[in-house]
Amino acid sequence: MDNKRIYLAPMVGRTDEHYRAFVRILSKNIYLYTEMITCDSFLHTNRKDYKVKEEEKNLTIQLAGSDSKKYGQCASIIEDNGYDEINLNIGCPSSKVVKGEFGACLMNYPDKVADCVYEIKKSCSLPISIKTRLGLGYEENLDLLFSLINKTKLSGCNKYIIHARNAILNGLSPKKNRKIPALRYSDVTTIKNSFPDLEIYLNGGVDDILEIRRNIDKFDGLMIGRKIYDNPMFLNEIEGEIFDNKKVLSRKSILVKYLEYAMSPQNKGTSNYLLLRHLFSLYYNTGSSKKWKKYLHDIIQADREIELITNFEELTHGEEIKA
Ligand SMILES: Cc1cc2nc3c(=O)[nH]c(=O)nc-3n(C[C@H](O)[C@H](O)[C@H](O)COP(=O)(O)O)c2cc1C
User: Fold this and answer.
1) Among 18-22, 26-30, 167-171, whose mean pLDDT is lowest?
2) How far apart are CA 274 and CA 17, in angstroms?
């Protein structure tokens, strides 16, 4: 799969450092993302002190906001801290985000976004990308997206990740905005064909190997979120089928490796909840899924020894583990 990239989608409440460590155990080829963070939160919390670990490379940080100067301030710190790329969130439809004048509503203000790109470019040498939607509201035309790309490419962005549906800003929750309106992959193809020199990545609803194969060659790569979170072993399939990496791991060995990470000195003092909350779907679609969830839940609730995670399969006494 020469030069094609698959990205883990940024997901608030999910793609934190522990989840990224877990994902990296399952896949050495996937490109990683942080959760979205506003420029203000980045500058005024300890997120600005976080140094990227070798294992989580390639890692893109996703920023949100509409004050170009603040993007510039974040950018130089981000470069020093070892991130590989800066992504602007121009796709989030939540009402909180709309009030703060960032996310998808900035599709209406392409000049403002271009200024933000310009300030980042001035402050660091990292690649810049934009994650956005096909448009706003129910009208299916690409005018806003064309305008956004045309303006921002002039200020130095040459990479776009497109969630292949519009964002509905009034009345639909972010969750509904990931199902409604319908996906339009062919419109993302139109964008790629119109801007052959730009990197264009397809996002939204990619949930099996066939779909990856069907689409990856049409674009510079793909971005996948929910399917990976809901079934981490899908990464094993991606490694084997797409990246031809036959050294895939069993669930037990994934847990052994994750335990090594979780018990390393850097995580001293971190709660079991934060360390273990992303492991619940490891046995997704197996006969042991329900038991595993309860087992993990008990370790978290009772604050029991984290080492117990690797004992699970012995305790299931040969029940059907395989999917
Ligand atoms: C729980 C959750 C949180 C999300 N948070 C973000 C975010 O921080 N930034 C962003 O650009 N998109 C966010 N998204 C959207 C995803 O990045 C992605 O665009 C969307 O889920 C569609 O891809 P998928 O069908 O592969 O999941 C989030 C999605 C989920 C499910």
Assistant:
1) 167-171
2) 10
